[in-house]
Amino acid sequence: MDLFQTLQTGSGAWNPLLWLVALGVALGVALAIRSRGRKDFREGVGRKPFISGNEEPENGGGHVPASNLYWGFLESLKSYYARIVPLHTGIPTDYVAWLLGVMALMLVVVLVF
Amino acid sequence: MMDTFVMRHLPALLIAVPLFAAFLMPIVGGAGRVVRNAWVVLGALATSAVGLALAWKVLATGTVLYVFGAAAPHVPLPMDSGGIPIRIVFQIDALSALMVVIASLSSLGITIYSLAAESRQSGLETFYAMLFLLIAGVLGMVSTGDLFNFFVFLEISSLAGAALVAYRVDNGVAVEAGLKYALLSTLGALAVLTAIGILIGQYNALNLATLASRLQFTTLDKLALVLLAVPLAMKCGAVPMHFWTPDSYTTAPSSVTAFLVVSSQASLYGLFRILFTLYGPLLSWATFGWFLIVLGVLSMFVGVTMAIPQKDVKRLMAYHAVSQTGYMLLGVGVGLAVLGNPDALAKYGRTAMAGGLFHIINHAMYKGLLFLTAGAVFYRAGTRNLNKLGGLGHDMPWTMVCFMIGALAIAGVPPFNGFASKLLIYESVFRFSPFLSIIAMIVSILTLASFVKVFHSMFLGPRRAEFAAVREVPAPMLAGMALLAVFVVAAGLAPQPFVDRLIQPAVEALVDRAGYIAAILGGI
């Protein structure tokens, strides 16, 4: 049995083995480039990270909390979230109302079509 | 002799083994921790072995029938029944076998994991009794060929699930979530029971195949369809009936959450059975195909966009569970929409359904894995709040590796299993509607973004003083995660054998309504 058969999608194909070979080649190229770097580099000796001109925070202070990530995404979709979040009320009777509402809608669709 | 007896009665053992493990748990638990844990492992191993053996038998020899209480249980209509399927019949075809494989693998992984994860909790006899009842309920739902029996197993899984959601009292939050789960499940089950009443009142039958052969699609049948399909869509977490999902998945112990995903998928199986097998050609294919597609697209988009701003890692993952269910609904919905068009069905309909069904097993494995990693982080760090977590990769490297495998799989990054099923969905759905395929791809990109955030928040960054005592989780938890991670990698590296041997037969079983009916009624 050929474990690494090509996956046929009907209109395309995917072979994980070929992908792994390509990944290996890419890693090889990356390592080759890395090997051409400076051999005398030592981490933390005479160099400081550049953080937009700010001082490097103390150990642990530089971790960006989850709420600060994707601020732009959430801001640009503010109007969408202003509508969708309030629907998640946490109130069981609201959950039941949605269930009954979909049932009613579905019944209309079934009877009409 | 013994082998033959066991192989002959596998469908009965599929339910009897977990029920036996559950009912003896309070007695065995009294003998001490070691004996209880040994009983749990034995029960989980035996249940999985029976499930996998049954699935192997179905895939090797075709549909397996089992008539409970009959002298000849393998004969669909025993002579002593008067040619009427009055007894409970288990009808396990390739689609049921797929679901049995999912439940078997997942239950084994989560049970091993729970041995260490729940070791600090009290009331573990009740916990494991409920867990085995949940497993029995799910296995029964996907194996039975009897509509009322399906309702019974749905109730068993719902009540056990609600009890497990409320297991950790957690200042009342878990109890509230359990109550919501129980309320919605009970209402859904009540609707299903009403539908069964409507059908038996008209056709004097409870057997699925018999009902399918007699259905006239009267107005009452249409009402029954709504009462069956909508609650099952709610139970699988489809938007806009998904609200219970984040509440329940967040507060349940992680091992339970991982199996609640499988429980939801059993409801998805029920929905597909109702639409394809029970009603079949009586439906307007396009209308009901689009019903699934609309639910799928809504679930994908609302699920992923609600996940991104979440701060509780399990709540975030719960919204992703909603989102991933959308892919399954989309894939199978496209197949249903073109079921009446042999040309489209051959060109892309079957592939779309294969993608949807392949995504069910893939999702059960990688989402189960992700919930287990979230539980591992909570076990050591004591919080699920992503704003408070950080730097855990230094001390929990194996948990981090398991998380990375699960996160890359759910985002559809090759070479993991999520990519293989999503590729089938993208390419086949594109031929049906490019717009839907593009939405599916955008949702995958957002999923990746969301899990990059989780990875950064939990594992990256320097060590934090408040987590100085954190170390890797105990071996049973790692073993449970590793079992699911191995599947995620294996199904990603070798997807075609899975598709050929497990998924395509399931697609054929779903499409072949006449074959399902003939397996019962053709045996007279």
Could you describe the 3D structure shown?
The complex is a heterodimer of chains A (113) and B (524). With 113 residues, chain A is mostly helical. Chain A has four helices and two strands, in the order E-E-H-H-H-H. In chain A, strands 1-2 form a two-stranded antiparallel sheet. In chain A, a hairpin with a 4-residue loop joins strand 1 and strand 2. Chain A is flat, with a radius of gyration of 27 Å. Chain B has a domain of 210 residues. Chain B has 20 helices and two strands. Chain B has a two-stranded antiparallel ribbon with strand order 1-2. The longest helix of chain B has 40 residues. Classes of the chains: A mainly alpha (113), B mainly alpha (524). Chains A and B meet through strand 1, helix 1, helix 3 and helix 4 of A and helix 7, helix 9, helix 10, helix 12 and helix 14 of B.
